[in-house]
Write a structure and sequence with these properties.
Layout: H1 3-10, H2 25-30, H3 37-64, H4 68-77, H5 82-102, H6 107-114, H7 121-131, H8 136-159, H9 163-172, H10 174-194, H11 205-214
Length: 224
């Protein structure tokens, strides 16, 4: 297992397209739900333990060797918002473009043929982790970390927060990130043995609602 590969996959500078998305933070800022570092931490904790857990479990299951097409269908079923489904597939396409160069192999052409509209981002992330020689737990950690870092980086731009204090939010959530990653990896082990229907389906209805509202805005800083 290459620790450098995990760092590369989780690096915000990796060209995965995530920098253009706020993870729901832009809508939360507009609604007054995120105003400062304290409310940002609450938002990120809620996102981490719901949609973040689901994404981490899907990524870990893909890294475990579960059928990516079954996982893609499971991701669809766990993403009720059409706007978020489109976003996840768009990010999956962008991530696939990056990893097919970084860790080349026939898998990426096969995935593109099976999912011409793009596979869901967590599934691609897990496949990338597997291609890089990482473990399912590594894949889960990367997904859980991303579910927090995306909104934090977005809110620095949206509210002009002190970036040092904003990134302190990530540090404050470090134990939660590890906990979610551990849970996700255990779910993935069960999915490998019993099927993908056993994966978690934690919901975040407000994220779904605000994602649909955000998609209708004529002026916005982030794509989602």
């Amino acid at each position: 297992m290459s620790h450098a590969a995990l760092l590369l996959l989780s690096d915000g500078r990796f060209p995965s397209g995530g920098h253009a998305h706020s993870g729901g933070a832009e809508a939360a800022v507009a609604a007054g739900l995120v105003r400062d570092t304290a409310t940002l931490e609450c938002f990120c904790r809620g996102r981490l333990h719901t949609s973040g857990l689901v994404a981490a479990a899907l990524a870990a299951a893909a890294a475990c060797g579960c059928d990516p097409l079954l996982l893609d269908a499971a991701a669809d079923a766990r993403t009720p918002s059409p706007a978020l489904r489109r976003t996840s597939r768009k990010l999956g396409r962008q991530l696939s473009r990056a990893v097919r160069v970084t860790w080349p192999g026939p898998l990426w052409d096969e995935l593109a043929t099976a999912c011409p509209g793009g596979a869901h981002q967590p599934v691609v992330l897990g496949l990338a982790a597997r291609a890089a020689g990482l473990t399912p737990l590594d894949a889960a950690r990367s997904a859980a970390y991303d579910s927090v870092c995306g909104p934090v980086n977005a809110v620095v731009r949206l509210l002009g927060l002190d970036p040092f204090r904003a990134n302190g939010v990530v540090a404050a959530l470090a134990d939660d990130i590890d906990e979610v990653a551990d849970r996700a990896a255990r779910h993935a082990e069960r999915a490998a043995a019993e099927g993908v229907d056993t994966l978690p389906a934690a919901s975040a209805p407000l994220l779904d609602i605000t994602a649909e509202q955000h998609a209708t805005w004529s002026v916005r800083l982030f794509a989602s």
